[in-house]
Amino acid sequence: MTLPTSRPARAAGIVLAAGASVRMGRNKLLLELGGQSVVRRAVSRALAALDPVIVVLGHEANRVREQLAGLSCRIVVNPAHDRGMETSVRAGVAALPADADAAVLLPADMPLVTPAMLAALVERFRATGAPLVISRYGEVTAPPHLYARRLLAELAAAGSGKAVIDRHRAAAEVLAWPAAALADLDVPADRARVEALLALDA
């Protein structure tokens, strides 16, 4: 892939924030961690490394939107969010600007993902032109992942980053992160575990 020479490759962000948090028993995106809500934390960190940042909302969209007041993100509401994450991936890809050379896909419930991690994905893409830059936590492949523009139609069609990664893994660049950074929020017990990890980094 040949990247434009007149400007650095532009990497957008897609933050997935549409789920119903069924296993948490309440909307986990509204939980407070480190002095701010989970969703505001995720979007703020994305904005520090990616441009533009598209946030896909769905469940309790108005309540989640309130948490993003003042942030220069673009909000997209997915009316089909209850049909699965695939619909939110498609909504996010459809909202990308035409001049985005790549997109980083990030679920909002991974509070230990840092701006430095997101920036490293972009820098590896700029340095190599690889169609795919993926994250590894020990032996686990998990977001955030960067998809070059030529893979975005495939990502939208599949609705699954995993399917695209499986098909293009041989061409992917891989960045390794500490296993602890994989922590996400699914069930109530996860909150205390994540808060403890955040305290260690404070």
Descriptive keywords:
202 residues, alpha/beta, Spore Coat Polysaccharide Biosynthesis Protein SpsA, Chain A, 8-stranded mixed β-sheet, two-stranded antiparallel sheet, 7 helices, 10 strands, globular
Largest sheet: 8 strands, mixed
How many helix segments?
7
Extended strand count: 10
Elements, N to C (H/E): EEEHEHEHEHEEEHHEH
Helix content: 25-40%
Terminal Cα separation, in Å?
40 Å
Would you identify the regions where 5 or more consecutive residues have pLDDT less than 50?
none
Mean pLDDT: 90
CATH C-level label: Alpha Beta
> What fraction of the residues are assigned to beta strands by DSSP?
15-25%
What oligomeric state best describes the polypeptide chains here? Answer: single chain
Using only C-alpha atoms, the radius of gyration works out to 16 Å
- Which CATH architecture is right? Alpha-Beta Complex
CATH topology: Spore Coat Polysaccharide Biosynthesis Protein SpsA, Chain A
Decide which structural class fits the backbone: alpha/beta
In short:
This protein is an alpha/beta fold.
